[in-house]
C-alpha cells in the first residue's frame, strides 16, 4: 500500500502543475500583464478575451493552446488557436467481476458477470481564437446540446 502511495505522488504533482489559471499565469508573467491596457488587464484577470488583443494577452487569459492552425485567409496571414475540452462518453456492458464480501452464505469470494456502466472522457475542440496580424479578430466555442 505504501508503495502505491509513494508511486502516485509524482503523478499527482504532475497533474497539479498542468492546471493553470489566469491568476497563476499573470503571477508567472508580470511583465506581459503590465504591458496591457487597463481594459485588457481587467479582461485577462477574468479569463476573458476581446477583439484586438495580442497573442500574449490571450495566453494569459486562456493558457497555451492545444493546437494551432496557420494559413492565409482573404490574402492575409491567419492563425487559429484551438483549445480542447474533455467530453464524457457513457457506455455500459457486461463484464466479469471477482471480489470478497458478504452474501447469502456469509463472507467469502464473490464472482460472476454483471452489467457495469462506465464513463470515458475524450478530447474535443472546445473553443478557438482567430488572429490576423497578431491580433484577435474573432473567437468561437462549441456548444453542447444536452
From TrEMBL:
Keywords: Signal. The keyword Signal applies. Residues 1-22 form the signal peptide. It comes from the Bacteria. This is Lipoprotein.
Amino acid at each position: 500500500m505504501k508503495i502505491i502511495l509513494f508511486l502516485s505522488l509524482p503523478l499527482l504533482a504532475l497533474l497539479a502543475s498542468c492546471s493553470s489559471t489566469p491568476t497563476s499565469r499573470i503571477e508567472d508573467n508580470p511583465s506581459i500583464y503590465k504591458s496591457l491596457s487597463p481594459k485588457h488587464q481587467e479582461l485577462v484577470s477574468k479569463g476573458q478575451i476581446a477583439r484586438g488583443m495580442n497573442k500574449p494577452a490571450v495566453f494569459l487569459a486562456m493558457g497555451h493552446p492545444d493546437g494551432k492552425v496557420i494559413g492565409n485567409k482573404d490574402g492575409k496571414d491567419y492563425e487559429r488557436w484551438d483549445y480542447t475540452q474533455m467530453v464524457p462518453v457513457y457506455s455500459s456492458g457486461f463484464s466479469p467481476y471477482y471480489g470478497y464480501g458478504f452474501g447469502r452464505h456469509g463472507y467469502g469470494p464473490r464472482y460472476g458477470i454483471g452489467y457495469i456502466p462506465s464513463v470515458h472522457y475524450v478530447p474535443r475542440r472546445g473553443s478557438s481564437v482567430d488572429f490576423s496580424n497578431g491580433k484577435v479578430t474573432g473567437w468561437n466555442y462549441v456548444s453542447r446540446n444536452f
